[in-house]
Amino acid sequence: MRVVLSILFWIGSTVITIILFCVVFVVVITTFPFDKKRKIAHAQCFWWSSCVLKMNPFWRLSVKGLENIDRNKTYVIIANHQSMADIAVLYKTHMQFKWVAKDGLFKVPFIGWCLSLTKHISLERGEFASIKKVYREAAQWLRKDMSVLFFPEGTRSDTDKMNVFQNGAFKLAIKEKKPVLPIRISGTRDAISKGSWVFKTKVSTTITVLPAIDTSSLNPGDFASLRNAVFNKIAGGAL
After folding, report:
1. Boundaries of domain holding 221
2. How far apart are CA 31 and CA 25, in angstroms?
3. Which residues are CB-neighbours of 167 under 8 A, at least 6 positions away?
4. Which of 44, 97, 195, 230 has the CB geometry, 3.0–4.6 Å to 147, for a possible disulfide?
5. Whether the Cβ atoms of residue 177 and residue 76 lie closer than 8 Å to each other
6. Tens place of pLDDT for every residue, the chain, 239 residues?
């Protein structure tokens, strides 16, 4: 039964994603003259996320801490990474942001094309020049009052413990004097195992937006303490 339901889910989510791409394509073309940040196109992913999550009979999602988001502020958003389901659940914050995502995701038909159309940031892992380019693009977006979302573990964790956070996002937050907004994701690893396409049953997932951390008084050398503080905040709940 799990296999059958998983097949039906993947078929349905593929159809919805194709529809999303068509909508985003039309929105980008029609709003190009006045929506340079692609905010309207990005917002189309909100209904896509709701559809995908509601279609899956195995997921029960709870969203907490939305009151910690100041819609008038620009953040360096930091989230832990558990599975490919993280993308869908993070759109439930209804925040405007640019993902930093590995370049392979941009090559996936329809969903990757949507990422390109909405001007998200592609990272070629292991390439130093690409890493420098990512932080340069991220800084440019932050200066345009557009939040940027990082998965600082680099890759999703295979265990109940988070991987070590990389330093770049925290150095960037201090340099650009932008607050860090930690987001804790729990349960998505249980929804679908790495390397599998079959969903587990009766899985509860939670996304918790934690209070932002101000960086206005921090110096460049404080990046490690900022990184550790964010790590501890996210790890403070059951993952």
Report:
1. 2-235
2. 10
3. 223, 224, 227
4. 97
5. no
6. 677 877 888 899 999 999 999 999 999 999 999 999 999 999 999 999 999 988 877 778 999 999 999 999 999 999 998 888 888 999 999 999 999 988 888 999 999 999 999 999 998 866 667 788 999 999 999 999 999 999 999 777 666 678 899 999 999 999 999 999 999 998 887 776 666 677 766 778 899 999 999 999 999 999 999 999 999 999 985 44
**Nearest one of 176, 201, 182 to 191, comparing CA atoms:** 201
Residue tagged 């039906």 (tokens) = 8
Backbone angles phi, psi at 32, to 5 degrees: -50, -40
Residue type, 27: V
- Whole-model pTM: value is 0.91
Q: 129: buried, middle or exposed (CB in 10 Å: 19+, 13-18, 0-12)?
A: exposed
Q: Coil, strand, or helix at residue 20?
A: helix
Domain count, the chain: 1
Report the chain's terminal Cα–Cα distance, integer Å. 27
Q: What is the CB neighbour count within 10 angstroms for residue 163?
A: 16
CATH (domain of 82): 3.40.1130.10
Can you read off the two tokens belonging to residue 191?
């929804």
Is residue 204 within 8 Å of residue 62, measured between CB atoms? yes
